[in-house]
Amino acid sequence: MSRSGARRRPIRVVVTQHRLLHYRQAFFERLRRACADRGIELRLVYGQASPFEALKNDTVSLPWADVVRNRFLRIGSVDLVWQPYPADLREADLVVLMQENRLLSNYPWLLKLRTRAGQRLAYWGHGRNLQSSAPDGLRERWKRWFVNRVDWWFAYTDVTRRILSVDGFPADRITILDNAIDNEQFVHDLAAVDGARLQTCRDRLGCSADAPVGLYCGSLYPDKRLDLLLAAADRVHAQRDDFRLVVIGDGPSRPLIDEAARSRPWLHALGVLRGVDKAAWFRVANAYLSPGAVGLHVLDAFCAGIPMITTQGARHGPEIAYLKSDYNGFIVDADAETVADTYLALLRDPNLRGRIRSAAEQDARRYTLDNMVDRFVDGIERCVGMPT
Fold it and tell me: Can you tell me the distance from the alpha carbon of 71 to that of 58, in angstroms, rounded to the nearest whole number?
C-alpha cells in the first residue's frame, strides 16, 4: 500500500498469438494461474487461422482470452497478418510477441512505438525459421535485423539460445523454456487405454497383438516428408507382410495419404484424433515414424515410450534438440532404405527397444508443461524487474 492509500496494480503482461493452437490451451491455462499466484495479470490476445492454416484443423478457444479479428493478405505462398491490439491493453508492463516476419502488427512495437516509458517488449520464438529453404536469404536476414529490438527473449529450446548468441543478444536476457506440451494429460490418457480398446484398434487394423505397427501423428504438409514415410513403409511391408502403418492428422497433404491408402490395405489414415482416442494408437504402435520435420510430437513419443525415427537434414523444429540418436530415438540418413532398416532392426532387438523406451520415458519427465510454465513466469519477473 502506498502513502496515498492506493493499492499498486498488479503487473500486467500481454501475450499475443495470431491463432490459438490446441496444444497451447493447457499451457495458457496453467500460465494464467501461475502468474496470478505471483501477482501478475496475464492477458492473452489471439485471432484466427488463415484459410490455408484452417486446413490443419488445429485451433481451439479460451473463454477468458481477448479474441480479435485478424486480417490477411495473401502474397504468393505467404499470408501476411495484421492482428489488432486491444486498446485497453496498451499500458501493459510487458508485451510478448511471436517472432514471425509475416505478423505486420508486430512492427510498430519493434520500431519502438511503445505506449509508455518503461514498457517492456519480448519475443517468443525460434530465432530463425528452421524450416526455411533459404536460411541466408532476404527473409531470414530481415528476421535477424529485429532480433535485438526487444528487451527479452523467450527461447523455445537451447537451439534458440545458440542462435541468439550468434546474433549478439545478451545471454542474461534469455529464458530457455524447453518448449513442451501437456505430458501429464497424455500420460493419463495412455493409462486410460484398457485392453478392450487396444483389441478394438487391432481389430480395425486386422492384425495380431505382436504385429509390427508404425505410427505417424502430426500435421500433413510437404515438410513432413510423407513421400519418404510411404517409401519406407513399403520397404518394411515387403519384408513383414503383417506390418501396419497408422497415420493420424490432417492438413494440405492429406490427399497424398488418402490416395496411398487406396492401394495399400495395410495403411490406415484416421484423421485428427485427441485424448484417449489418440493415446490408444500410441499404445498399439511400436515405433513413431516421422522422417520429415519433427516438433513437439517428439514428447508424445517419449511419453508413450516408443522410439521415434526421423532423418538428418529435415526442416526440424527446435524440439529436435530433445532427440538423441541411439539414446531416446533415432536420427538417420534421409533415404527410405535406412529408415526401413532402422525400424526392422528395432523389431529384431528387444533389448534395444527396452533401452530406448527407458531413456524416452525418463526424458518425458524432464520436458514438462509445468517446468515450461515456471520458466516463463520467472522470465516475466526478470524482464519486468530489469532496471530502466
Answer: 19
Task: Please give the average per-residue pLDDT across 79-88, as a whole number.
Answer: 95
pLDDT digits (tens, 9 = 90+) for 219-237: 999 999 999 999 999 999 9
| Terminal alpha carbon distance of the chain | 22
Q: Hey, CA dihedral for 329, 331, 336, 337, is it positive or negative?
A: negative
Which parts of 163-283 are beta strand (E)?
Answer: 174-176, 213-217, 244-248, 267-271
Q: How confident is the model at residue 303 (pLDDT cuts 50, 70, 90)?
A: very high
Judged by DSSP in three states, 153 sits in strand
pLDDT of 137 reads 78
> Looking at the DSSP assignment, which residues form a beta bridge with residue 248?
217, 271
Cell numbers linked to 370: 509445468
Grid cell 493478405 in the structure block, residue: 73
| Mean pLDDT, the chain, whole residue set | 93
Q: Under a CB-based contact definition with an 8 Å cutoff, are residues 219 and 250 in contact?
A: yes
Angle between helices 336-348 and 226-239 (to 10 degrees): 50
Neighbours of 196 (CB within 10 A): 7
pLDDT at residue 270 greater than cutoff 90:
yes
Q: 72, exposed or middle or buried, with CB in 10 Å at 0-12, 13-18, 19+?
A: middle
pTM of the model: 0.77
Q: How far are the Cα atoms of 198, 236, 266 from residue 207, in angstroms, in the given order?
A: 11, 15, 9
Residues 244 and 213 sit within 8 Å (Cβ to Cβ): yes
List, in order of start, the domains of the chain with CATH numbers.
11-180+369-384 (3.40.50.2000), 183-364 (3.40.50.2000)
Rg (CA), the chain: 22
| 302 phi and psi angles, rounded to 5 deg | -60, -50
pLDDT, residue 4, reads 41
Q: What does the pLDDT read at residue 132?
A: 63
Cα 367 off chain centre by:
12
Strand partners of residue 332 = 311
Report d(CA 96, CA 250) in Å as an integer. 29
Q: Give the H/E segment covering residue 261.
A: helix 254-262
pLDDT for the residue numbered 56 = 79
Q: What angle do CA 45, 297, 270 make, to 5 degrees?
A: 100
Q: Tell me the C-alpha distance between 305 and 274, whole Å.
A: 18
What values do phi and psi take at 326, rounded to 5? Answer: 70, 15
User: Is it the case that residue 315 has pLDDT exceeding 60?
Assistant: yes
